[in-house]
Records
---
Amino acid sequence: MNTTYSSLDKDRLTDLFQKERKSITGQATPLVNQIRQHALSRFKKNGFPTKQLENWRFTDLTPLLNTEFVFDFSNQSRSMDVGKIFTCDVYDLDTFSITLLNGWFVYQSAPLTKLGNGTIIGSLAKAMEVYPELVDQYFGKAAKTDQYEFAALNTAFVQDGLFIYVPDGVELEKPIQLINIVNADHPVFLQPRHLIIAGKGSKVTLAHCDHSLTHNVSFTNTLAEIFVEENAVVDHYKIQNKGKNSTLITNTFIQQKKSSTVYSNMITLNGGFTKNILDVSLPEPNCRSEHFGLYLVDSNQHVDNQVYIDHIAPDNYSNQLFKGILDDEARAVFSGKVMVRRHAQHTVAHQNNKNILLTDDAKANTQPHLEIYADDVKCSHGATVGQLDPEAMFYLRSRGLCERTARQLMMIAFAGEVVQKISIQALQERIQHLVEKRLKGELSICDQCMLHCNSKEPTAFNIDMSKI
Amino acid sequence: MLNIKNLSASINGKTIISGLNLEVKEGEVHAIMGPNGSGKSTLASVIAGRETFDVDEGTITYMGKNLLDLPAETRAREGIFLGFQYPVEIPGVSIANFMRTAINEKRKYLGLEPLTGAEFLKLMEEKKKMVDIQSKLTNRSVNEGFSGGEKKKNEIFQMAMLEPRLAILDETDSGLDIDALKVVAKGVNKLRRPDNATIVITHYQRLLDYITPDFVHVLYDGRIIKSGDKNLALELEKKGYDWVKKEAPAGV
């Protein structure tokens, strides 16, 4: 059953929950429903985050919630051929490909697959039915619903999403690719939920792509919990290419056990309003946690990256590098916080945010932040907001490069520092290609769409020379 | 080839070049010497098309074209090359990629097909040998982390790749030890052809031991106050600039 609301707030959402309680809670385990109930009461108390909160100072949600969103709680995972509406641009990447359409799992053969090595990949809703103990063991243990309003909201309404379980010692050769597609002719509000468990000594690569195949208004609040057990290695890539009327909030909670390694890379190519929240807990020693981000935004796009790294145990290494290029009236926010607790001796933590503004109207707010309670640590943080170096521009032009080419070359080089951190060669090359296309103004959200609608509205990165 | 008449140029309202005349013909090597602040680098920048300087008076004709009408990139494609005194570091842009882009933009301008990857690599290997630069240097980002000598060698390598008609080397010798200086001079000499010309801007006579100029000019207070052959450079080395300054007719 579809339900419509003109403007969203905590009361309306609570009412909606009560009305739809049966469809929402139907497939979940009793423990998940118990966690859900707690999250719902948190959301009922706090509601949506407002600009009064430190982490939302520069990011105003009010206009985005002023829409008659349509909720669909009754849908089920279903079988369909996704290739008919979408093809991935990373075509030579051999992956386990998984698709969510409007927040619901779609599959070719089965909603949940168990591989020969014991790995389970599939729908979270189905996993709650087939492997309830496994889900219960992890679900909600990383997501901090008391501190993050959107995590509370997602948890309150959790129904479906991606479930991955990689047993101890299993190294997955192929990356798992999650394609999250929004395609609806009405404004939808979606809350997919993912649970990823990398067992001891396992190796997992996850590429998570967010796309919209529509220019309609949509609001996605997605949450991923990633559990990285002892000695496990997880690579997590996020590629976001969304329409300008889409709102995307991503919440990623990572919990790392002893001697584990996590690399994450967040590439925002397009998006109306994007907020990426990343929260990493390091409760055990000898871990490596590296997080990179790149955002290329123009027109009035808004992208906000909020990172929190919690060094609880000693001898951990963390590194953050977020870079962005902003054109027109685009806006970027970076708020990164590294917490080094009292017992977290020998912590090494670096944090850096670099922005290039191509116009006077583009704006970047950056707040790198360290909070240190241990005395034997090595920490650094830094932030820059600037223009392309005019000396370098002249140098390139004096060799015969026109201003446009010189500018593109320098922007591609600036972005390259983040792209080069991608360890899968094929993925790195394709993302490099997408970034170059984006910076040359040739990438639109229609590129990967197979629907061939007539309303082609390219969101191009056109550089207006007169403004510089 | 190059004809500068009564040139005056300023930056932020401050006149640096005033009433300068210079003619350079094909096949010639001109050395421009002069004390600090006399306007040598400004002259190089104005010829190359740096917009931070305003041209207030005079003309520059290059191969029959009004040079001052052309943006910096068009001047480069027409065959003008500026060897920078302080080459700029550009992190993330490899020299190979930079040069391939530059050559193909020039070829496009001249109505030629772009070089294929294989053709480009062949050309690059050839030029690397010609100017004695280390093979791995071209895979690195432009000037990033280069020593002073490597930066200048890289300028000469770029010059070899772009095959300019008129090369202006702005204090290419500054900060170089004698070995690096020899490599740079050797490169310049190898690139000399009857149909191209070189302007060497230098503070010291030292470079001119290796690159023999046809003409030596003394730039002082924004204009050329004395011209001569290579012996003038030796005289300047011995006697300094003061005697030339005194000899200079006032107001020229």
---
Amino acid sequence: MVYEKRFDGRDFDETRPMQAKAGVIKRAVGSGWFKIGKTEAIAAVYGPRDLFPRFLQDPEKGYLRVNYNMMPFSSGSDRVRPGPSRRSKEISAVAERALRPVVDLSEFPNAVVDVFIELPQADAGTRCAGICAASIALADAGIPMRDMVAAIAVGRVEDKLVVDLNYEEDSHEDGVDIPIAMLHNSKEVALLQMDGVISPEMFKEAVEKTKGIIDKVFEVQKQALKERFNVKQDTKQDDAKQE
Amino acid sequence: MYAELKNNIIKLLGEGKRLDGRAPLDYRDIKVEYDATENANGSARVKIGDTEVLAGIKMEVMKPYPDAPDVGSLMVNVELYPMSSPEFESGPPSIDAIELARVTDRCIRESKMLDVKKLCIEPKEKAWMVVIDVCTINEGGNLFDAIPLAALAALKNCRLPAYDGEMIDYHTKTDEKLPLVRNPVSVTVYKYGDNFMLDPTYEEERVYDARLTVGVLEDGNLCSLQKGGDHSVKIDDLFKMIDLAREKADQLRKHLE
């Protein structure tokens, strides 16, 4: 089958519109908000603080703990029953692994840095949006970081490689969903999952394409942090400086 | 633990003042935003000062209970997310979450604002169930007013999804509103020593002696009550607290129009 035009009319390598903000929850040490299309994620960081249960404590470094949760009314279909599910526990674990490579918690032995990700509204790509929000929140909290983590889903619908699948594409019967999180500077992969059948060639092409998209996501995250800290420099000057 | 804070608050209240400069019976700015999230059948975001909560409704179809075969039903749930306060923890609902949900439920249910008979689709077989979830975003104090207000606003915002007798089509919204026939609000009055206060911040909320949540109907009648706090309250003070709640009810209700 030939996928000629995307359900929502986007180009095949075009993401949905992205928006981000830092510092959206006053009680938290740091927080971030990330919206891509209709999918919306909020993340809050608490800590470093005492870690319980105690057996998780590491005298060498702090522990990063991520909890992902969908609000009960966030789904496009039935109500999501509150409390952890197998799905939310797995996503919490993979999001945790996606963020661990960039945080340096060596200054906080025995402590925990908690990241809570909540989804008020879901339309596919929630784990990626959650990781983007969490990365903003960690930076906002001033947790030492080596890099930012940005994430996006790529995949296949029928014969086409597509970027940032929406719910219709994600649930398409002949489709593949590949959520990828990358470290922005190094482009190392911090999260990778896939479901569906794809040729190795197309998979490689998808990963290569992701790099450019990650840069776009990062720009949105960076802008949010700049606005938070009132950095007036515009992006062009900043890029010129780097060159 | 907070003895000094409490002494300060009471001392200031004696002079008609508060830590943030408000008068004892002043609310912070209240904002109610409708249609706050697209996938819910009705939703509202309520901000009272720094406090922010998000309420969403999912309509479900259920089999009516055998003892009430021709009425629909209501469920209220409150999620105190650890995202919104360092004091909230993950895990099963805390007693605070349960009390907030039950107080909100009681105000809605006992005011009879929902004409539950009109929620019946087919007696003994099918009826609508209104499921309201209120989630905290930032806990800045006075969830006892913010959460019921958000739930009431979401009810007013709700439109039934399309239903063909078998399946709910959540992607298709109809124009049909919920059968709302009364207009209650929930107001909570706090007591510190001999002083009364409204809309405490989370700091003030740590040290109150007693609180009274009052469901007030548009005609001034009461529809629900809940006393909280570890101190007992004189009957005279109780009446004063109810009067205060009734006086403030219209101020909250105007945010629901």
